[in-house]
Amino acid sequence: MDILINEVRLQKRINELAKMIEKDYQGKEIVLIGILKGSVPFLWELSKRLKNDVIMEFMEVSSYEGTESTGVVTIKKDLSGNIEGKDVIIVEDIIDTGRTLTYLKQNLLERKPNSLKIATLLSKPSRRVLELDVDYIGFQIEDKFVVGFGLDYNQKLRNLPYIGYIE
Ligand code: IMP
Ligand code: MG
Questions:
Q1: Ligand 1 proximity of 103 Cβ (cutoff 6 Å)
Q2: What is the pTM of this model?
């Protein structure tokens, strides 16, 4: 296992993202929708740095088996609250082909939030199949399969405190 992004760099960058979000949402309540399971560490590190009122919601979708995207997105767990009229940020671990977030954005917009943005810890732009506007990106990375800090390989390695990669 090689380290791609260590703990210090992760914390520093998440701090910067939190500052940007605070500036964009001055005094507003924010609904953070964490996409289970990979977004959990990022959602926590980001949310604890925000001075805004934060509501945490979670969704679970699946579009991925092993290391290959199947391209089909299904909702396995839906929100528990209503987001109509709310300022919502989807919090994701990584955007790869863009299929998951394109589907989710469309699905959530139908619920009429006041605003909807996307925050992702990682992005692999070279892998994009669907064009997608992403508002907050932690790190752009090359086309490597990464694990840790929420990201898994067959459900394991999510608990690593850094982002590593498997050759
Ligand atoms: P997309 O729909 O292709 O953008 O895929 C997004 C999802 O694929 C993420 O939420 C991850 O669960 C998974 N994924 C994509 N790349 C990686 C990776 O390098 N490591 C672990 N999971 C990944
Ligand atoms: Mg995911």
A1: no
A2: 0.94
